[in-house]
Amino acid sequence: MKASDQIKEWIKLEERRDGPALKPQTDPDGNIEVGWGHRLTAPYTADYTLDQVENFFENDIAIAERSVSKNITMPLSQWQFDALVSFVFNDGEEALTHTIAKKLNSGNIYEAMDTLLKYVHGKHGNVISGLVVRRVQEASIFLKLENQYEYH
């Protein structure tokens, strides 16, 4: 499966409401990012083009798509796949494989979504309010509670 264009646009808004960062920025956890949440490792340049950050975004989406496809064995609808791609894009494959994938693959959908809702902390243990909102939205999308698949 592939992430829908709709979820890609939603992820971009969730990552950066003011558009892509063309200069490296520091996120709340101290990671250096560019574009729509693409983490950079040294060495990196001072400026990026819109084409470069769009390529970073598409590559990061592809990584998230592969992760979901590899780790989730239960059949997924498009909106379920999209919700998990958003989660992995934001929190990484390890967060998916730790317990969420196990719960989904054994049919415990609601337990899996309860677990997803717990991924709201920064690396120093602090709750990040934006992550609380995002996790509720992702769980709602997964469970198709989000206004007939219209992301907000």
- Rounded average pLDDT: 92
Binned strand content: 5-15%
The biggest beta sheet reads: 3 strands, antiparallel
Please mark out the parts with pLDDT under 50 across 5 or more consecutive residues, or reply none.
Answer: none
CATH topology heading: Lysozyme
> How many whole angstroms does the radius of gyration measure?
15 Å
**Structural class based on helices, strands and sheet pairing:** mainly alpha
Question: What is the distance, rounded to the nearest whole angstrom, between the alpha carbons of the first and last residues?
Answer: 22 Å
Number of strands: 3
Which architecture would the CATH scheme give at its second level?
A: Orthogonal Bundle
**Looking at the structure, what is the overall shape?**
globular
Domain unit count: 1
Q: List the helices and strands in order.
A: HEEEHHHHH
Which key features would you list for this structure?
single chain; about 150 residues; mainly alpha; Lysozyme; 3-stranded antiparallel sheet; 6 helices; about 55% helix; about 10% strand; globular
Structure description:
This protein is mainly alpha-helical and 152 residues long. It has a single domain (5-142), classed as Lysozyme (Orthogonal Bundle), CATH 1.10.530. 54% of the residues lie in helices and 8% in strands. It is built from six helices and three strands, in the order H-E-E-E-H-H-H-H-H. It has helices spanning 5-15, 50-71, 78-91, 93-105, 109-116, 129-142; strands at residues 21-26, 32-35, 38-39. The chain has a three-stranded antiparallel beta sheet. A hairpin with a 5-residue loop joins strand 1 and strand 2. The longest helix is centred in the middle third of the chain and has 22 residues, at 50-71. The radius of gyration is 15 Å and the shape is globular. The two termini are 22 Å apart. The relative contact order is 0.14.
